[in-house]
Every structure is written in structure tokens, then in C-alpha cells.
Amino acid sequence: MVGVDVLVILDGASEPLGGARATSLERASTPALDALAREGTLSRLRMVPAGLAPGSEVAIPTLLGWIPDGTVDRGAIEAAARGIAVAPGERAWRVDAVTPDGDRAGDAATRRAARALQADACAHAVHRLAGHRLLLVGPPPLPAATRAVGLRVWPEGVVISPTLERSTVMVAAIGAAAGIGRLMGARVLTPAGATGGPASDLAAKAACAVQAITGGATRVIVHVGGPDEAAHLLDFEAKVAVIERADRDLIAPLAAAIRRASGTLRVCPDHGCDPATGQHDAHPVPCVRWPGRDLGARGAHGDDPAVTGMRPAADPAGDTQGNGDAAGAAPVSRRLTERAVADLAVTDLMPRLVAA
């Protein structure tokens, strides 16, 4: 158990600064995270390479050490998440059912879209995933039926390759994070009640992670999808609530277990998602490492061997993550918030692309 490295990914928890509104991380009551921040090391990480759209399929692999050099194949991720076989010579395409305005389609519209797509693409298999998501599997090229009104196909891209040690355990709901974990070589565990949404059973995830720690895992990754899903629903209060539940039901018991195991805990979002728009953003995100290596300086960067290739970099022009005042926000203090790390140099996790 000695030396276990635990990472909690609060998917989409970060938000842009610069307006009069406090972010969800600032609004949330997070006593466990606050204690980690006081004792640990805060940093500011950029996990979305320039030119790539912000999303979990890019940011989570980057955080775990696999740097994408182009668009990541979301179809391969979804197939891996659910154990859907893709035979040699076939491809998997992620397909979304959408409204005329481009929003996520409802359940009935998604069922109709799946039936119509299966009827028109009879040489392919259509799998209904969660919500508005579909997976199309079969031989290329992409069937013409996917150009129908009400469907949006994710682009083909590079497939994630295994880079994680075989002793790595990922605790995640069935979804993108689970697929990424499997493709990268982790053993993925999905406890009962883990849905990936705002109401997911985070206590069950904590129990699963603690069991992995006591069982001798050297690296444990816990994914929390609720903040991102709540933001996509434009639900400010649900996003704050799931962050607070993650603090109480997941992070607090994990910190106690890691203290007993003399391990390391890191907590950070993978990317931002604004509940005002439902859109992802690629701004740098706050991260806490506990125990920290430099406890004296506010926000000093710790040397984290669990993330390879990290190096400080100046914030690029046009990044408006300033440290202005926000209505409803507490004074800037050592917390896992965007404002608490706004004055820190940005640490890039993709040095090869930065150097290029």
C-alpha cells in the first residue's frame, strides 16, 4: 500500500473566470478539499493541446500521460467502455441524436433516430448508449444514412494506445472515462449505482477505490462525471451539489485511506464546462496534490512524478483567466478554485506539442 497514487478527476468542474459570477468550485462547500489545499500543493494545469476541441477524450488521456497529436477517436472509446466488439476491418462511430437547434435530443427522439439509422444502414450495427448517444459499428466508409437530419457524427481520429501500468485501477461509470481507461490499459471497475450523472453513487465509488487501495493497487483513478453532466443541463445548482457530494462522499474517505497508506492524492478537473452555456472550455484548470512538496509558498508547483513531461509555461495571449472579483465568491484563499490558482504559471502536460 505504501506509495499508492490516487487521482480524482472532477469532470468539467472548472469554469471560466472574468465575469461577476462566482464559479461552481467557489460556491461549493468543500471542507475536505479545503483541508487538502491548505496542507498540499496547488497548481494550474493545461490539458487540452492547441488546435483540439476541449473534451474528456482529449483531456483525460493527457492527464494520464498519453498526449494526442490529433482528434481522438470517440467511437473507439465508446466501444471499449461497453465491451462492444469491433472486428478487424470495421470501425466504430459515435453518433449523437440532436434537435434542430443542435441540442441533445430527448429519449423518444433518440429511439426514433436509432431505429431509422439501423433501417438505412443495414450492414452496420446500431447500439443505443446513454441519453442521446448512439454507436454505429461496421465496415467503412461511414454510411450515407448518418447524414440524415437530427444526427451528428463524431469525427474519426487517433485511437488511444495503452500506456498505464497493469496495476492501475480506474473507478468510473460506463462511459468515456471507462473507455479511455480500458484503452490505456487500466483495470476498470464500475460499482453499482455509478451512473456518471449528477445523482451517481459517489460513496460506492469511494468504497470501490478504498478496496483497491487496501488490495495493493499502486495507482487508482476515480472519475466523477456529474459536474460536467450538470453543466450540460445548464443546471447551476446541480453542479454545485455534485461537487459538494464528491467532497463529502468521495474525497473525505479517500483522504483518510490514503493517509493510512502513506500515499498521494491529486484532485483536479479534466477541462471546464460552463453551466451558463453548457459548453466545454480549454482554460487551465486548478489542481491540488496532497501531501504537497512545498507547503510554505502559496501555489508552489510540486514535482509530481506521476505525471510525466510537465513543465511550467507562460499563459498564452488571449487567456482571460484573470483574478478579478466575483459576486458571491469568498476572498481568494488556498482552495481548489480557478481564482486561487489564477496568478500561478501554467503547467503544460503536452511538452512535445508546446515545443513544436
Your description of this structure?
With 356 residues, the chain is α/β, with parallel strands linked by helices. It is built from 10 helices and 15 strands. Strands 8-7-9-1-10-13-2-15-14 form a 9-stranded mixed β-sheet, sandwiched between helices. A hairpin with a 4-residue loop joins strand 4 and strand 5. Helix 3 runs parallel beside helix 6. The longest helix has 25 residues. The C terminus is likely disordered.
In CATH, the homologous superfamily of the largest domain goes by the name Alkaline Phosphatase, subunit A
Number of helices: 10
Structural class estimated from helices and strands = alpha/beta
Question: What letter string, H or E per element, gives the SSE order?
Answer: EHHEHHEHEEEEHEHEHHEEEEEEH
Radius of gyration: 20 Å
Main CATH class of the largest domain: Alpha Beta
Low-confidence stretches: 294-331, 352-356
Q: How many domains, as an integer?
A: 2
Short description:
The protein is an alpha/beta fold and 356 residues long.
Describe the protein's topology.
Layout: E1 5-10, H1 24-27, H2 31-39, E2 41-46, H3 56-64, H4 74-82, E3 91-97, H5 107-120, E4 125-128, E5 133-138, E6 151-153, E7 168-171, H6 176-184, E8 187-189, H7 202-214, E9 219-224, H8 226-232, H9 236-260, E10 264-268, E11 272-274, E12 279-281, E13 285-290, E14 311-313, E15 346-348, H10 351-355
Parallel strand pairs: 1-9, 1-10, 2-15, 7-8, 7-9
Antiparallel strand pairs: 2-13, 3-5, 3-6, 4-5, 10-13, 11-12, 14-15
Helix pairs in contact: 2-9, 3-6, 4-6, 7-9, 8-9
